[in-house]
Amino acid sequence: KAIVDQFHRMGNRITVLYNGTLIIESVTEKDAGEYLCVARNNIGDDLLLMKVRVTMKPAKIEHKHYLKKQVPYGKDFQVDCKATGSPQPDISWSLPDGTLINNIM
Questions:
Q1: Predicted TM-score of the model (pTM)
Q2: How far apart are CA 81 and CA 87, in angstroms?
Q3: Cα 61 to Cα 92: distance, rounded to the nearest angstrom
Q4: Among the four 20, 78, 86, 93, which has the fewest Cβ within 10 Å?
């Protein structure tokens, strides 16, 4: 476990400001858990325990109406596959010959 002073950066994502504010940028599922804030002076101390849950959503393809498509011979074929989720899902295509193509993002 790391122990750092106020207004110290742990890597590029975690900062503690002078007023005690904790900032974590680009939260991932690994940031979920219990956070403990301790306030202490010569009279006494106080604690705050906070449970943090990182919300995510499964991948979901939008507009599933492209179940069949006819394309004239020699013409171009284009079909969109848009998906939502948190974190943002990667898109890949499987071609009739078994070739797998990953998205370029």
A1: 0.62
A2: 17
A3: 12
A4: 78
